[in-house]
Design brief:
By secondary structure, the chain is an alpha/beta fold. Helix content is 42%, strand content 11%. The protein contains 13 helices and seven strands. A seven-stranded parallel beta sheet has the order 3-4-2-1-5-6-7, sandwiched between helices. Strand 6, helix 11 and strand 7 form a beta-alpha-beta unit. The longest helix is centred in the N-terminal third of the chain and has 16 residues. The protein is globular, with a radius of gyration of 21 Å.
């Protein structure tokens, strides 16, 4: 498996500003917009199952954020002998269906999670990069519609593609047009994919379009853990074919999930280029790569600063992305003024 340090990653992107890119965003990209992560959803479903079967414990187990509450609920689940073990790959799809076996209830669950959520900094920066033609499409496993929502706020024509409108996927590249593809459906229009059976059967139309995209275009993955076997299989197939498009997999922290490592190894074996990059969140990653790649574009940099001021205090974005220390003492210390952040 090939890895890149974050600084190597953004230098690589800067040298490829003349190349179009696609984004693949998972649930982790929407956390900073206030949308619960996949892990948060799992614990919410566990909590709902426990509370509905143990109503007398409502007061004692009300706050699922408390570690002792989670431990007690997990111990109860384990004692039942019918639930998957903690942190297993099966948890998401199992508990989604167990908590809400009626598919329309699951749809409403995700609808309620996404209501009144506004796109965070990273989504705005993605739209700004789309305006200049650097990003041409955003593919997502999410149900929140944040990519589409933010695109409407910029000089872009967003083209929404869901399981209900797959025919829109076949289009020529058009200036100021951003393709927004919901791989798992959209709660506003139809069925979602979140149970085992559903996740194991991706749309052939969307998968073929994704594979065509990856032959010519670099893909940046952020906030996605590689949980869905069918999507990972489609990515494997895509990168097993000849093509010039690279894969930059931006993970959270240094630990690469086994499914992602397997994909990257497959890419290398087939003579394509794929890299794992340890990062520290969607917003921070998008901010630092945007600033570096557009460092010679004063107008773009000014727009970033205006955006930061508009969205509020982002002091937490000033630290460097996650990167393991090599033990070397740096001899130069640079003091930066981050007051504007």
């Amino acid at each position: 498996m090939q890895t890149l340090k974050f600084d190597e990653f953004i230098r690589s992107l800067k040298q490829n500003k003349d190349t179009t890119h696609s984004l693949l965003l998972g649930a982790g990209a929407s956390v900073e917009s206030g949308v619960p992560s996949a892990s948060d959803c799992i614990w919410d479903w566990k909590h709902e199952i426990f509370m509905s079967q143990n109503p007398s414990s409502a007061d004692s187990f009300k706050n699922i954020k408390i570690d002792n509450v989670r431990i007690a609920i997990q111990n109860w689940l384990d004692s039942q002998g019918v639930y998957p073990i903690a942190s297993s790959d099966e948890e998401y799809s199992f508990f989604a269906e167990k908590a809400y076996p009626i598919d329309d209830d699951r749809r409403k669950y995700f609808q309620h999670l996404s209501e009144n959520k506004n796109p965070s900094l990273g989504y705005h920066l993605a739209a700004m990069l789309a305006e200049i033609g650097w990003i041409k499409s955003i593919w997502t496993t999410n149900f929140d519609g944040l990519s589409l929502k933010v695109a409407h706020q910029y000089n872009l024509t967003p083209v929404e593609v869901t399981l209900e409108s797959q025919d829109r996927i076949y289009r020529h590249d058009v200036d100021k047009e951003l393709l927004c593809v919901s791989l798992h459906g959209d709660y506003k229009y139809g069925a979602l994919k979140n149970t085992t059976a559903e996740l194991d059967s991706q749309s052939d139309v969307l998968i073929k379009a994704l594979q065509h995209e990856l032959a010519k275009r670099n893909l940046i993955v952020i906030g996605y853990s590689g949980r869905d076997k069918s999507l990972m299989s489609a990515l494997k197939d895509a990168y097993s074919q000849p093509g010039a498009g690279r894969l930059y997999w931006c993970g959270y922290g240094a630990d690469c999930p086994p499914s992602v490592e397997d994909l990257l190894n497959t890419i290398t074996v087939n003579g394509r280029h794929g890299f794992y990059i340890p990062t520290d969140g969607f917003d921070k990653t998008m901010l630092l790569l945007s600033r570096h790649c557009m460092s010679d574009n004063a107008s773009f940099l000014n727009r970033i600063e205006s955006l930061l001021n508009t969205l509020g205090n982002h002091a937490d974005l000033t630290s460097t992305p996650f990167q393991q220390s090599d033990g070397t003492l740096k001899k130069i210390v640079i003091a930066l003024n981050f007051e504007r952040l």
